[in-house]
Give the backbone structure.
Amino acid sequence: MSAPQAAHAEPKAAAEGEWEPKLIVFCCNWCSYAGADLAGVSRLQMPTNFRVIRTMCSARVDPEFVLRAFASGADGVLVLGCHPADCHYIGGNYRTRRRIALLRVLLEQYGFNPDRLKLEWVSASEGAKFQKTIKEFNETVKELGPNPLTEE
Amino acid sequence: MSNKIKLAHYWGAGCGGCDVALLDIDEKILGVAEIADIVFWPIAVDGKVKDIEAMPDGSITCTLFNGAVRNSENEHIAKLLRKKSALMVSFGSCACYGGIPGLGNLTNRKEILDLVYTGLPTSDNVEKVIPQPATHTKDGELELPVLYDTVLTLDQVVDVDYYMPGCPPTTNLINEFLGIVEKHVKEGAPLPPKGAVIASQKTLCDECKRKKSVKKIDRVYLPHEIPIDPEKCMLEQGIICLGSSTRAGCGAKCLEGNQPCRGCMGPTAEVLDQGGSMLSALASVYKVDEKEALLTEENIAELMAQVKDPMGTFYCYTMPKSIIKRKVVEKKKPVKKEA
């Protein structure tokens, strides 16, 4: 798999003086990881300050993973899965979206801006949507600034 | 007297329920007096800190420390007792996971003091006097412990040998543990490995006698909103029960009393974050029907908003021991735009 190599490699040093967020992107094996792959082989340009973690299904992303990502200094966490009705495991993504919705409420109670966690559907054919999602999420998190846990 | 073990029991930020739990072991308490000299137990016996300070290091056989650590006195005594004790037991949910006082991590020292001393409708504090660590009076200096911003668990402050969770730990668990210590002292029986949790290794569902079938719920209810079937799984009735994310060992007493588990026994060994684990479980039991693919993310957010207070529900006893540990404050910094 060629595409997410950019993501696995150490992100490029940011331009002088500009803060670059650290993003964690969970991709499901069947749709979104292939979508990321397509974005890569299509040479779509996007920020490189994200790390992809492949899971078999977006529902494999335990809320604990997301909390650990924030505790380890991630500034934003993106969870990508198959579109509704397209889940390889029939209903995994439905569980994911319930979890993420609830987790966003919890993150807000913890004092985080809930926009630091985003769920999006990216299919295997949507390389362009992967690119767009990354670009937009990067902008959102940039606006929010560094993870308050790493701020002290 | 010389062959008796020495026992200490101290309270940090707790409610005193754990102290009562130790008294509550019925006639076994006489057995405790038989095998042990109680050297320090502020709620029940007269003992002074300076007496403990005068004891040789490691001379207390076992200290049961209940309550979280949230002020300088809690920390000082925890460190003192650790030095003087061979075994340090984190006793009760507050010491193990922060417990109910741990929810103080949703706020901070300033907010707490301001509210309690000046902000309540019943407070009459015109000069806004707030307790200070040191106060000068004409008769000398008065000292008070310093309240911390963050509630800590015992093991975040000192090295802990055993954990005995529960709010409070049940009579059975206390007896089991005292039995182990007694056997060790009298017969040289081996102690459990360091770091052991004196409870079950499974989740509460394993102990709960309710009938469990398919978990599919439309919505959640508070326990007073519906008549609860005493035979059927709580979660299947739409009542948030933390049993599936909580360590067993308590005997599922709350469920016997027709109330859902609130998670005081903390997570099992495999789980880092009890709240995250329960959040995941609850989200998964919401029913999915054929219209699911048509639902928007807003619909789903609305559905999950039925859980009014995820923090208070899922982290009722474990916030200081959770992955994030305390409330954070976003400082939205101006972003440097490219020229």
In short: Chain A has five helices and four strands. Chain A has one domain: 22-150. The CA atoms of residues 34 and 82 of chain A lie 10 Å apart.
